[in-house]
Recover the amino acids of this structure.
């Protein structure tokens, strides 16, 4: 059983090879998501920290997953990549088909749309002249928020940030309903999709490298 191998980059990943570049890009995404999973999926011991950190974690995860899905979707425009994916072992292809459900024309495109909304609205920070900041302030206008000068976090900002985040994830009709928002289900879907992506990227890289590392 192979324990390690030395890779000469220009032989394994030539810069003019579309499949090689696709595998490298996928591996970069893989490493990022391994880091995110390790750092962001941990539950804090302090409830106040968890409540404060959860929206920021969700914002990072939605933006990262959205970009990863777009990477896969855009990659299919390259014939060489499409042919390579079709040549993968069946069990890897089945994982890829699960990810394709998240594409813009997939059965779970609604999740991608939520990810895109959140990324577009929250990731670049709302500018003072943007409607989402005004609308969020209007929504929390009657709330009373605790303020302590020595506290490291500004609770008023968290209330506004959370409002903007929810408005990006759910439609105005969903927000007006009295029933509880399916936020837990959304987070589970995001975590499962990230797990699937990690599994796919790991198997693809190892399959690609097996021909070079014998």
């Amino acid at each position: 059983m192979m324990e390690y191998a030395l890779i000469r980059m220009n032989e394994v990943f030539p810069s003019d090879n579309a499949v090689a570049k696709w595998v490298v890009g996928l591996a970069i995404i893989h490493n990022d998501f391994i880091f995110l999973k390790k750092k962001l999926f941990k539950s804090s011991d302090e409830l106040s920290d968890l409540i404060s950190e959860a929206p920021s974690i969700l914002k990072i995860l939605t933006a990262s997953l959205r970009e990863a899905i777009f990477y896969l979707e855009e990659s299919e425009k390259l014939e060489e990549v499409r042919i390579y994916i079709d040549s993968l072992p069946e069990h890897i292809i089945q994982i890829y088909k699960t990810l394709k459900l998240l594409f813009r024309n997939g059965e779970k495109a609604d999740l991608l749309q939520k990810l895109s909304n959140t990324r577009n609205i929250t990731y670049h920070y709302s500018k003072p002249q943007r409607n989402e900041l005004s609308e969020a302030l209007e929504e929390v206008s009657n709330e009373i928020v605790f303020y302590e000068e020595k506290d490291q976090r500004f609770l008023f900002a968290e209330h506004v940030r959370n409002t903007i985040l929810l408005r990006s994830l759910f439609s105005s009709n969903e927000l007006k309903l009295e029933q509880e928002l399916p936020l837990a289900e959304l987070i589970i879907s995001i975590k499962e999709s990230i797990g699937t992506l990690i599994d796919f990227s790991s198997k693809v890289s190892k399959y690609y490298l097996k021909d070079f590392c014998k």
